Amino acid sequence: MIQGAIFDADGTLLDSMGMWDTVGQRYLAGLGIEAEPGLRKILFPMSLAECAVYLKGRYELPHSYQQIEAGINQGSCLFCTS
After folding, report:
1. Which end of the chain is more exposed for a tag (fewer CB within 10 A), N or C?
2. What is the reported pTM?
């Protein structure tokens, strides 16, 4: 008798990859900041931690790297003004 199962739905039933294409723009938009053209291509090869470092430095964000990562993972900004 099967007592449990693990099923990886992402890529099979769900496709979350599209969400990651605009995560930088959406995060910055939540702060009221317009993203630079081509941000998606800049962030694409980076890890989440590298994205946080880039966004913090490029946009002079006052938040910690951990706060930026949490906001990106949440799908929005933790400090949104709107």
Report:
1. N
2. 0.72
For residue 9, tell me if it sits in a domain. Answer: no
How far is Cα 9 from Cα 80, in angstroms, rounded to an integer? 30
> Residue 77 CA to chain centroid, in angstroms?
9
Task: For residue 14, list its beta bridge partners.
Answer: 10
Give one DSSP letter per residue of 41-59, joined into a string: HHHTTS-HHHHHHHHHHHT
Q: In which domain, by residue range, is 36 found?
A: 18-74
The total number of structural domains that make up the chain: 1
Summarize pLDDT for 4-25 with one digit per residue, the tens: 877 666 555 555 555 667 889 9
